[in-house]
Design a protein that fits this description.
This protein folds into three domains: 12-55, no CATH class; 58-231 and 280-529, Aldolase class I (TIM Barrel); 233-276, no CATH class. 40% of the residues lie in helices and 14% in strands. The protein has 22 helices and 17 strands. The protein has helices at residues 43-50, 129-132, 135-145, 155-158, 174-185, 199-204, 206-214, 239-247, 259-267, 284-297, 311-323, 343-348, 353-369, 386-395, 407-425, 430-433, 439-442, 446-453, 455-459, 463-485, 504-510, 520-528; strands at 78-80, 106-108, 114-116, 120-125, 148-151, 163-165, 168-171, 192-197, 218-222, 233-236, 251-253, 273-276, 301-306, 328-332, 376-380, 400-404, 499-501. The strands form five sheets. An eight-stranded parallel beta barrel has the order 4-5-8-9-13-14-15-16, surrounded by seven helices. Strands 10-12-11 form a three-stranded antiparallel β-sheet, covered by helices on one side. Strands 1-17 form a two-stranded antiparallel sheet. α3 (135-145) runs parallel beside α5, α11 (311-323) crosses α13 (353-369) and α14 packs across α20 (463-485). The longest helix is centred in the last third of the chain and has 23 residues, at 463-485.
């Protein structure tokens, strides 16, 4: 492990670096020798001339960001336990207990009516450019795969073509497009499209509009996320759009209606405005009232997403979710993000994933032991591959039903889109060209998709969607193999004893046995026999 947990004063995320790469003070992150005459390549130096702009990762709109902090405990501090004995969820027969027969389907919701082909979901991806520019791939890929996708905050408010009258939304272009892309490709009722809302969305009536006009059945209340403890924010490069957002009730900095600010912008003193959302003020009374409002509006399922807040807030989220019949609760650990969260905040704020998820299990078990019905739980915060998915499901078993991932699905969709553009332009990089020069040759799932959706439909499929679908196919096969090794042939059989802690600290935090203590009683019984 590195001697410090965080990289201070320089990062690719803020496009900053030290002048002396090998001679840096660990505490401050400054060069040991700070020289008069340096142009200011580090974060301190860049802040001397760009100020608050350096709080945020750059370049805006074409990147996703996540913490580079090296936390004391993460999911790599656990290993998956396999066994040579028996099988759960299938007959203990070597010809039947093979990994292609592992069932990854999951059902949840108050009536068991929600069904996913795979145990993961994309939590809220909202109004950021990175989400909007890749939505086609994300929505279609998720729908084809039969998984979930959440439309995040501020989509209606950021849409210049939204029709808003007396503070309520009457029509949209962007939200309508996002919902329809998923609905048009959904197959056999698998997967789900969810519309999330923050303070501004709630005031606009976004969820009521989505239910009544767009046929959305699932809505999500948002308390926060793991990337930041403030509301959502984006950068706006247009004065006209900044003024529109200001008029719609957003916090816009600096004030785009101030004549002095307008002049400074036109002179080029700054090139972008910041649009911020407000933070919610959670009370049990307001929570219960909003849940009832959404049910009366026609919501069939109601979700809740919370972030890496202090343990008392997590306890509230779990209790309220149980008490008011929430169908799914997502808990997002510190360090992740898809948008433009302040960089130092993303690194230094909140409860990290393993710690937060361990507390979640503890609270859920306590309420379940007291007779309360615990909703399906989702763990989020830096998950990318099948081993982490297995560990998350095991750490939170039997309450955790899904794993939330955002950055990695976006990456898969972006790569798929980029490959498609390269194919069209005849400029396929050598690294890719070794597999071929067409969609059918490059994407390993192309044949499968052609058979399933038909020749004509496949030809019109965006390559961003194929990229996401293919990434999910890899995760599914990898997860089946891991479950096969643990002899668990369906998700409900995954248990906490399917993983072991590699350090005493990880064991103490999670309650998962230390590797040398696993199976102690059974070992004694075997050896004494």
């Amino acid at each position: 492990m590195s001697p410090t947990f965080s990289a201070v004063n320089r990062s690719a995320a803020t496009l900053t670096k030290n002048r002396t790469d090998d001679s840096i003070t660990p505490i401050s992150g400054m060069c040991v020798t700070c020289v008069d005459g340096c142009i200011g390549m580090c974060e301190i130096g860049k802040s001397a001339y760009r100020g608050h702009e350096v709080i945020y990762p750059q370049p805006f709109g074409v990147i996703t960001t996540a913490s580079e902090k090296d936390y004391p405990i993460d999911y790599s501090h656990f290993n998956i336990m396999g066994t040579a004995v028996g099988a759960h969820g299938i007959e203990a027969d070597s010809d039947k207990a093979i990994f292609p027969n592992v069932n990854l389907e999951v059902r949840f919701g108050h009536d068991g009516g929600l069904k996913f082909r795979y145990p993961w979901i994309i939590p809220g991806i909202g109004s950021t450019d990175i989400a909007k520019n890749n939505w086609e791939g994300l929505a279609i890929g998720s729908a084809l795969a039969g998984t979930g996708l959440t439309i995040g905050e501020n989509v209606v408010g950021m849409d210049p073509e939204s029709v808003i009258k007396n503070g309520r939304v009457l029509d949209t272009v962007d939200l309508k497009r996002r919902v329809k892309l998923f609905q048009d490709y959904q197959r056999d009722g698998y997967g789900a499209i969810i519309v999330q809302a923050n303070i501004e969305d709630t005031r606009l009536g976004t969820q009521e509009y989505a239910i009544e006009k767009l046929g959305v059945e699932i809505v999500e209340l948002k308390w926060g996320q793991g990337a930041k403890d403030i509301g959502g924010e984006v950068k706006v490069k247009s004065l006209e759009k900044a003024q529109m957002l200001y008029e719609r009730g957003y916090v816009v900095l600096p004030n785009p209606t101030d004549p002095a600010v307008i002049k400074a912008f036109e002179r080029g003193s700054f090139k972008e405005f910041e649009r911020h959302s407000r933070v919610g003020m959670v009370t049990e009374e307001s929570f219960a009232k909003r849940v009832e409002e959404l049910r009366k509006a026609g919501a069939k399922y109601i979700f809740l997403k919370t972030g890496a807040y202090r343990p008392a807030d997590l306890a509230r989220a779990v209790l309220f979710a149980c008490k008011y019949g929430i169908d799914l609760l997502t808990v997002d650990g510190a360090g992740g993000g898809t948008g433009m969260s302040p960089w130092r905040m993303m690194n230094e704020w909140g409860v990290p994933g393993v710690e937060l998820h361990s507390l979640l299990y503890k609270y859920a078990k306590r309420l379940a032991d007291n007779g309360m019905k615990v909703p399906a739980l989702v763990l989020a915060g830096g998950f990318t591959f099948e081993d982490q998915i297995f560990k998350g499901l095991a750490l939170g078993a039997p309450f955790v039903k899904l794993i939330g991932m955002a950055r990695s699905p976006i990456a898969a969709a972006m790569v798929g889109k980029t490959i498609g553009r390269a194919i069209e332009e005849g400029q396929i990089p050598v690294y890719i060209e070794r597999f071929g020069n067409s969609k059918d040759e490059i994407f390993v799932t192309a044949g499968e998709l052609r058979r399933e959706i038909g020749e004509n439909e496949f030809e019109h499929l965006p390559t961003g969607a194929i990229g996401l679908y293919t990434y999910y196919e890899r995760l599914a096969q990898g997860l089946r193999q891991l479950m096969n090794g643990s002899r668990k042939f369906s998700l409900e059989h995954i248990e906490r004893n399917d993983i072991a802690a590699l350090t005493h600290e990880a064991a103490e935090v999670s309650g998962i046995p230390y590797i040398m203590d696993v199976d102690k009683a059974e070992v004694e019984e075997i050896l004494n026999s």
